[in-house]
DNA sequence: CTGAAAGCGCTTACAG
DNA sequence: CTGAAAGCGCTTACAG
């Protein structure tokens, strides 16, 4: 790269001090600087194609205007949609974002936090993986500005923006019951993360409140490592036997994707053979032949609020803000009123 | 945040110079430094939880170990999949990545380049929007290390990693003709970007080489701003009249998504009523009731090669590398052998 | 209205 | 084997 032009270069060219150049280019002390000198400085800066060295500026001001974002996997549409919203909101405040994917792995997440902190990001937005509670507690202890998204640790008093996952699933199950379904299965991920437990809790609570006895084989907890085969086996199980489930709820977009794919291959008729609700809204859902009832997270709200809260925290460091948002149940044909099995063969 | 600990803090605590601390922590001059002193320094660094200030280091070394990535839209799975691959490859070389979305807008792309350069990224990976040729030429003139991905400007001698788009579409159309289809439509985006033109060119060349006369109403060029209604109208057009098309090719993932959605709503039978080929592979495709023949880009290759080429360029600045990769046609049921219209009503 | 100087937290050529 | 000192490119309190 060509030697970059610095304040000093401009100063020499104009015949003033770097102090003055700095003031002018930062629009400071405008009333105390001679108009013609200021203009000359601007002209030369323009002419030399000057570009602030943000690194040098940051070293001095101790502010990088950079945010660190740690998601589970930027290739997952849930993460990348959030990333886009955060990017835009950050940009609105002249912040830039560095991202990293943790792959739900606490070692990776720890390494990412370390890397980002070395780079002096002004704050972090983190979707923490299972097992990251201690790292988060560390951040807190060292007064690093951060806000959690999507997941959080109820034992830790930190800022976060998350969904009321229990209520979201509760509403979905309630809806299924309203529509006449009684044997309702849940396919979810094995995880000790709070948000996943909440989804399970919402399911159980809804069944209970409607006086449906829960059969434990209706609840399938899948290992994330061998997602596909396990989802297929779980689905087979749920549909086997004399009392197959009549409705199925998938608790996130990955599970839903593989689940729906498998149902497709089984040539099951939705909702006649099986009603379906999916957690998360994805473009993919639209291509399924039956429009799918799904739980829509307010992604824009999550991303924007997280960014704003983080920026506030960066300014005055002691505030903790916790935001719980409500999901929206988007009702489509995959949960139409149940038709008795004896009749539906039309 | 707590006052961060610096080399000086460690030096004072141990009673040595910062010089020594710097050498030890960077594993330099190891043979010249007393083992016990080195150990003591390491211990104290550990104890104080020291973390290098990468900003200060960068200012001195003029290297940030940061890459800038400009994609069209990080929320689009094509971009985010590439981002993930680039992230991993960069990480393998201890680089971190800052990203930004240009929304196919040259003003945004220019602003992003400016922001990233101010932040002293060591190099850029860019999927340039239509109209960005001059900015790219500027980068080149100022010897900024960069490599283009997905798109490039044939008039500019720059590094890039891209697909042989013409061959990709040619092969797809050829395949359709092999399978008995004669009236083949193309739905693509209005764009003067080379890669999009190449897709069109591949389509026309394939028809020509197989002696099929091209009817210009088979080629629909859609405005990206009003994608959905235009795709619907284009599809209607192509299917109307006494000579509707028998097969349709969508030239990218966004067009494909909207196109398939619309076909779905029309309750068209694929491939009986219409054969389909989509450009780009997405999870979404798997949910369509007929498995879709599609053009698969070697995303891993694109992302990894782009990253590696950029890192090479950063080291020795004068090299230009241009990589053209071949797509793979993944044949599925949406392009099964054509059945004569008179017979297919079984 | 303007500038000399210190300092942000590192690295590193040089001297001893 | 170790350290004093200069310098990366900025900002800014202070002096005039």
Automatic annotation (TrEMBL), chains A, B:
In its keyword annotation, does this UniProt entry include Metal-binding? Answer: no
Tell whether Nucleotidyltransferase is among the UniProt keywords.
no
Q: Matching SUPFAM superfamilies, A to Z?
A: lambda repressor-like DNA-binding domains, Periplasmic binding protein-like I
- A Pfam family this chain is assigned to: LacI
Q: Which residues form the HTH lacI-type domain?
A: 5-61
Quote the InterPro entries the UniProt record gives. HTH_LacI, LacI/GalR-like_sensor, Lambda_DNA-bd_dom_sf, Peripla_BP_I
Which protein is depicted?
Substrate-binding domain-containing protein
* Entry-linked Gene3D superfamilies: 3.40.50.2300, lambda repressor-like DNA-binding domains (1.10.260.40)
Listed PANTHER family: HTH-TYPE TRANSCRIPTIONAL REGULATOR GALS, LACI-RELATED TRANSCRIPTIONAL REPRESSOR
Keyword terms, alphabetized: DNA-binding, Transcription, Transcription regulation
């Amino acid at each position: 790269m060509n030697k970059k032009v610095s304040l000093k270069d401009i100063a020499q060219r104009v015949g003033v001090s770097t102090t003055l150049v700095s003031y002018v280019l930062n629009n400071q002390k405008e009333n105390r600087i001679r108009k013609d000198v200021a203009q000359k400085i601007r002209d030369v800066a323009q002419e030399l194609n000057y570009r602030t060295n943000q690194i040098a500026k940051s070293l001095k001001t101790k502010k990088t205007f950079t945010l660190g974002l740690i998601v589970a996997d930027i290739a997952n549409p849930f993460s990348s949609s959030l990333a886009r919203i955060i990017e835009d909101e950050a940009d609105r405040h002249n912040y830039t974002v560095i991202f990293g994917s943790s792959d739900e792995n606490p070692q990776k997440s720890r390494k990412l936090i370390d890397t980002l902190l070395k780079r002096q990001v002004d704050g972090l937005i983190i979707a923490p993986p299972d097992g990251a509670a201690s790292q988060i507690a560390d951040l807190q202890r060292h007064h690093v500005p951060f806000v959690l998204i999507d997941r959080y640790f109820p034992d830790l008093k930190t800022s976060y923006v998350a969904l009321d996952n229990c209520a979201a699933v509760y509403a979905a199950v309630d809806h299924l019951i309203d529509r006449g379904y009684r044997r309702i299965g849940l396919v979810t991920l094995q995880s000790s993360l709070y948000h996943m437990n909440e989804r399970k809790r919402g399911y159980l609570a809804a069944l209970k409140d409607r006086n449906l006895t829960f059969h434990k084989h209706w609840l399938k907890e899948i290992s994330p490592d061998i997602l596909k085969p396990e989802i297929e086996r779980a689905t087979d199980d749920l549909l086997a036997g004399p009392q197959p489930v009549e409705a199925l709820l998938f608790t996130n977009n990955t599970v839903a994707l593989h689940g729906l794919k498998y149902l497709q291959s089984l040539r099951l008729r939705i909702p006649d053979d099986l009603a379906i609700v999916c957690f998360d809204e994805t473009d993919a859902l639209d291509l399924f032949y039956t429009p799918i009832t799904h739980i829509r997270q307010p992604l824009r709200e999550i991303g924007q609020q997280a960014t704003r809260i983080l920026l506030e925290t960066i300014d005055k460091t002691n505030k903790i803000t916790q935001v719980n948002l409500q999901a929206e149940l988007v009702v489509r044909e995959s949960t139409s009123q149940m038709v008795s099995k004896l009749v539906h063969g039309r």
